[in-house]
Specification:
The protein has 194 residues and is an alpha/beta fold. It has one domain: Maf protein, CATH 3.90.950. It contains eight helices and seven strands. Strands 1, 2, 3, 4, 5, 6 and 7 form a seven-stranded mixed β-sheet that branches. Helix 4 (87-97) packs across helix 5. The protein is globular, with a radius of gyration of 17 Å.
């Protein structure tokens, strides 16, 4: 049995590697907006549903392997936001988030042979500081591809930290993977890890 991450997220790959896990990646490449369309799910259920759908898609192509699916949803003022389509979209998203507190919901699951074996969901709250449009322009120039790689148009582990005045929650959850519950599950149920 191989461990497979159903994601191409650099942050998730780096977290699992840093934790000492041996795994391969096999992205599911789902259109998240279309997958959720018409479902009427809560933000927590949306994150978990997306993680499960990714893992199930990959599981159908990797029989016998243990598939880890993960996803993250950003909720602010009752709206669920997705990754920006480009720099202009990212700027509009950041203007909307400016001076507000938003919630990141990260979900992870384990699937084998089309069966969901385990899942976990964690939340973090991030308060974006007030910044002017000139700062936003400078940030976007520095952030580059990070604007479209993450659901909030920022990477907290990089220049994105400059956007915030307060962060409450698990660092791994903010990066997009509830890592500690996943590691405990892998150790306890599958003997994977240290």
């Amino acid at each position: 049995m191989k461990l497979v991450l159903a994601s191409k997220s650099r942050a998730r790959i780096d977290m699992l590697r840093a934790a000492g896990l041996e795994f391969e990646t096999f992205p599911a490449d789902l259109d998240e907006g279309k997958v959720l369309q018409g479902k009427g799910l809560t933000p927590e259920d949306s994150a978990l549903f997306l993680a499960q759908q990714k893992a199930l898609v990959v599981s159908s192509k990797k029989p016998g392997d243990l598939i880890v699916g993960a996803d993250q949803v950003l909720e602010c003022g009752g709206r669920i936001l997705f990754k920006a389509e480009g720099e202009d979209d990212a700027q509009e998203k950041l203007k909307f988030l400016r001076s507000k507190t938003h919630r990141l919901i990260s979900a992870v699951c384990a699937v084998q042979d089309g069966k969901i074996l385990w899942s976990a969901t964690k939340n973090a709250h991030l308060s974006m500081r007030h910044f002017d449009d000139e700062f936003l322009k400078r940030y976007c120039e520095k952030a580059g591809p990070a604007l479209t790689r993450s659901v909030g148009a920022y990477e907290l582990e990089s220049f994105g930290v400059q956007l915030f005045e307060r962060v409450e929650g698990d660092y791994f959850t903010i990066l997009g993977l509830p890592l500690l519950p996943l590691l405990a599950y892998l150790r306890d149920r599958h003997g994977i890890g240290l």
